[in-house]
Write a structure and sequence with these properties.
The complex is a heterodimer. Chain A is mainly α. Chain A has one domain. Chain A is 33% helix and 2% strand. Chain A has seven helices and two strands, in the order αααααββαα. In chain A, strand 1 and strand 2 form a beta hairpin. Chain A starts with 17 loop residues before the first helix and ends in a 45-residue tail after the last helix. Chain B is of the alpha/beta class. Chain B has a single domain, classed as 3-Layer(bba) Sandwich (FAD/NAD(P)-binding domain), CATH 3.50.50.60. In chain B, strands 1, 2, 3, 11, 12, 13, 14 and 24 form an eight-stranded mixed β-sheet that branches. The chains are: A mainly alpha, B alpha/beta. At the A-B interface, helix 6 and helix 7 of A face helix 3, strand 5, helix 9 and strand 20 of B.
């Protein structure tokens, strides 16, 4: 079905059924209202969200812990691109713009939001759409993208790819107030206790596992204050 | 274009960080009316840095929440003069701060002293190894001040910070367990050394077995309740793991706000203005002295603040920029190798060594602190015989546990896939079982590494951007290869190690890159010395060309030593302030003949 503006996207994620079964501590649906998802995206289009879900889940696939999109990474990216970061608050954007050497770093005139939008459009314009591929083909397509040093539409493929990976990683491990790392998926995976940190009596107590459950900035023991939007790869 | 001319003050101070607030404290108490102009905003540890809100890796460590606004001011960069410099469009290799306390609120607190030989770099090496030993392409020189002269000031700053450590050279007596290579210190650290986690402990044991001399990193992360000489109350560090890039809401990391500002802010001779962006130092008609500074205030008005004495206390790079846009001193020209402003910019050579540990070793990396380390100094400075090595300088090797913040702390063994299931599993498997080592090396100055003004790009105020031309000299690449190899040897001999990998950011064949974070230890560009042909300021920090301008900070370093700069530059600050108070202000004049 076409969901021009529906956020009540139906979850037919890669490996549906795997989520509830495999991520026992991270069951996505906690109550009936969680499915009533009509939140608009801040920045992304539906197609961009689905493209990102497909790409991010290649970077961080599901195992005993959620995939990137299951952990809210697409929601995270949406919020980032719709805010100051996406608008280039951290960039000096005065021209002239010239190609530099790798050691001179970022030299595009695009903001991060523009970079991601134009990169996705460039990739989608080249042929098969990432979210239409099966899992193995997606992984191959992302691998191919990672090896490119040419342009992807209006942006350099390598710069786009670097930004995409950074955002995915940030979304999986940043505090859940930014909508990713849902239910502390990333923090539980590595054993990071979070923002409430006082270890004066523990630091030299060597080799003792620290079993304090994660707690974020919002003081939410569940890390679940906002559940990820449900993204259908099929649309 | 000036909207307002203010009444004259005795001293105007550009920048409200460590050196600026300290200058204000000392000079206000000496009867000087001081005005501090701080580009950023007011803030305080209690109201702005408290957890859990401050413990936000994304906001502060990744998005640079405490750093200066790059949209307004940045610099351009190139590796050599044949290239066109392009703007540093996002922070990376280094990240200058802004706001009250400057970068002093988000430092790690690694509080070092220079080695005596560091301060006599050229004469020491020539004396020990012969006149021809120093490579021709280096422009290294003596600082013009000796360790003995600086020692009381280094000591005092350690007391301001409540430094934690264990003296290795107490009044000439070597003490095992401290840094036996350090210069003699008049007293021990004011506070005991930090507790150590298992990772650093294993490193120390391995280094001891190899006959090296490990010791706890000297730390401005305070280890017990402490009152500093200005009356500031500091608290013990909690090992929270949010130190570098973060402010400390525990009052446990010495910073300029709690250690200095709180103790001077109500003094009748002290005034600070926030969101006051200094644009130029103004000169007298004859060009011999400065008359004050022009700045833009919070409302966008152009203001002139006249002053008898001008102190430049901005971050290292911006002090040099301000001198260049103001026409203070003679700009350095790499063609003729004349001029001094912008000359001898240098940096730091950084390599990382990772040791992966057996599962029974649980490091809990999130129990960290900015200066939580065990260090060997056996390969720093001239602590080892350079005769057969073909380079000068060195670096310390530290095993450190700064933090386990999971966006950036993702150690995986060499050869691991960079994404996908294998990577995800490796991140999980290694997060709690990894020891993190750094080789923190010196950086020698050369005639081709320098700062000047960019011909194309401008800042938000219409001034040309600073232009940095820099690459690592061969000397430093050889040094870094050598010391990194020693670090790998230590890592390989640690108990419970399963694999070791290393990354050298100054490796032979690779250009210095402005992208990956290395350190914010940008030094030189307005160096101190005893010869006006090769230094911007004399050995007291006073400009040769304008005697009422005093310059502070790491821009004074003629080349970079193997240590973090805050200790040395604050020693220099107290040295300069002592000479201002006792010698210059009673009788303003050049303190040395040029």
């Amino acid at each position: 079905m076409t969901t021009a503006y529906s956020r009540r996207a139906v979850l037919r994620q890669i490996g549906l059924g795997g989520i509830a079964a495999a991520t026992v501590p991270f069951a996505s649906v906690q109550h009936a209202f969680a499915q009533l998802d009509d939140r608009p995206w801040y920045y992304l289009t539906d197609a961009e969200a689905r493209w990102l879900a497909a790409a991010c889940d290649v970077f961080i696939p599901q195992d005993e812990y959620p995939s990137a999109s299951q952990a809210g990474v697409v929601d995270f990216i949406d919020l980032q691109l719709g805010g100051d970061y996406g608008r280039g608050a951290g960039l000096y954007l005065q021209g002239p713009f010239r190609d530099g050497t790798p050691s001179q770093g970022y030299q595009l005139q695009q903001t991060p939001a523009e970079l991601i939008r134009q990169g996705i459009a460039g990739h989608m314009g080249e042929g098969q759409v990432l979210f239409d591929l099966d899992g193995a083909a997606r992984a191959d397509a992302v691998q191919t993208l990672s090896e490119r040093d040419d342009m992807l539409g209006d942006v350099p493929a390598a710069t786009f790819f670097t930004e995409l990976r950074s955002l995915t990683n940030e979304g999986y491990f940043a505090d859940p107030i930014y909508l990713g790392n849902t239910q502390y998926a990333g923090w539980r995976m590595v054993g990071f206790p979070g923002a409430h940190a006082y270890y004066l009596d523990r630091v030299d107590d060597h080799n003792r596992p620290h079993r304090q459950p994660p707690m974020g900035i919002a003081h939410d023991p569940s890390g679940r204050s906002t559940l990820p939007r449900l993204i259908s790869p099929e649309g | 274009m000036t909207d307002r001319i203010l009444p004259k003050t005795d001293v105007v101070i550009v920048g409200g960080g460590w050196t600026g607030l300290t200058a204000a404290y000392e000079l206000a108490h000496a009867g000087q009316r001081c005005v501090v102009l701080e580009r950023g905003r007011a803030r305080h540890d209690a109201t702005h840095f408290a957890g859990p809100e401050e413990h936000d890796e994304l906001k502060y460590a990744i998005r640079y929440g405490h750093m200066q606004d790059i949209k307004k001011e940045t610099l351009t960069f190139r590796n050599n003069r044949r290239q066109t410099a392009l703007p540093m469009r996002k922070w990376g290799s280094f990240m200058p701060g802004s706001g009250l306390g400057g970068a002093g609120i988000h430092w790690n607190g690694q509080l070092w002293r220079p080695l005596p030989s560091d301060l006599e770099m050229r004469s020491h090496y020539e004396g020990r190894y012969g006149a021809g030993f120093i490579p021709d392409d280096l422009s290294i020189q003596d600082w013009g001040v000796t360790y003995e002269e600086l020692e009381p000031h280094l000591d005092f700053f350690e007391r301001i910070c409540g430094a934690a450590g264990y003296a290795g050279n107490l009044q000439g007596e070597a003490r095992s367990g401290g840094n036996v290579f350090e210069g003699a210190r008049q007293g021990d650290y004011p506070n005991p050394a930090m507790k150590q986690p298992i990772s650093n402990t294993l490193f120390g044991r391995a280094a001891s077995r190899m006959g090296l001399h490990p010791f706890p990193m000297p730390s401005a992360n305070v280890t017990q309740a402490y009152e500093n000489p200005y009356g500031a109350q500091l608290h013990p560090c909690t090992y929270c793991g949010f130190c570098e890039r973060f402010g400390c809401g525990y009052f446990a990391k010495a910073d300029p706000i709690i250690c200095v500002y709180d103790r001077i802010k109500d003094h009748e001779n002290f005034e600070i203005r926030f969101e006051a962006q200094v644009l130029r130092v103004m000169k007298s008609a004859d060009g011999q002295t400065a008359t004050g500074v022009a700045y833009q205030d919070a409302d966008g008005a152009d203001v002139f603040q006249p002053a008898d004495t001008v102190c430049l206390n901005a971050f290292s790079l911006w002090n040099v920029h301000l001198m260049l846009v103001s026409g203070l001193g003679e700009p350095y020209d790499p063609e003729t190798r004349t001029g001094v402003i912008g000359r001898n910019y240098s940096y730091q050579t950084i390599a990382a060594v990772d040791a992966f540990l057996e599962d029974e070793i649980i490091t809990n990396p999130f129990m960290g602190a900015g200066a939580l380390g065990v260090v060997v100094d056996d390969f720093n400075g001239d602590n080892f015989d350079h005769a057969e090595l073909g380079f000068v300088g060195g670096g310390y090797i530290a095993c450190k546990q700064y933090h386990g913040r999971p966006i950036s702390y993702q150690p995986v063994p060499a050869g691991t896939a960079t994404w996908g299931l294998e990577w995800k599993q490796a991140v999980r498997d290694n997060y709690l079982h990894h020891a993190d080592m750094v080789v923190h090396g010196s950086s020698m100055s050369t005639p081709e590494n320098y700062l000047d003004l960019d011909p194309t790009y401008t800042d938000a105020y219409g001034r040309p951007l600073l232009r940095m031309t820099f690459n690592f000299p061969q000397n430093d690449r050889r040094m870094s290869e050598y010391v990194t190899a020693r670090a790998v040897e230590i890592a390989q001999s640690m108990d419970h190690v399963t694999s070791v990998s290393s990354t050298n950011l100054a490796a032979p064949g690779s250009d210095y890159s402005i992208v990956p974070y290395q350190t914010t230890h940008n030094v030189g560009g307005a160096v101190m010395g005893t010869d006006p042909a090769t230094s911007a300021v004399n050995r007291f920090g006073q400009m040769w060309d304008h005697h009422n301008v005093f310059v502070f900070g790491a821009c004074l370093f003629p080349q970079n030593l193997g240590y973090n700069p805050t200790g040395p530059l604050m020693g220099l600050a107290y040295w300069t302030l002592e000479h201002m108070k006792t010698d210059y202000l009673p009788n303003p004049r050049p303190l040395m003949d040029s």
